[in-house]
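Input.
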Amino acid sequence: MLDSITEWEKVNWRRDGKPVERDPTWGFFFFLTDYAQATMDNISLALENLIKVQQRRLKVNTEGANLFANEVYRRLRFDVV
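Output.
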């Protein structure tokens, strides 16, 4: 299965001749729908707490972590829109 995925990743679906840039990150988009000052003040803290939860869940950089968990965490990305 990995070989098949690797082959499909090489396919360039663009027809403009530009090279395809691969982004090895994964994650989620968070859409900010409340623009109150309290929300704006606390969005950074909320994201920090979310990252800490993900780190604990994956047990990154601890004895119980494995190589794959560390790589998953390293590529994790949250975007706020």
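The CA atoms of residues 38 and 74 lie 30 Å apart.
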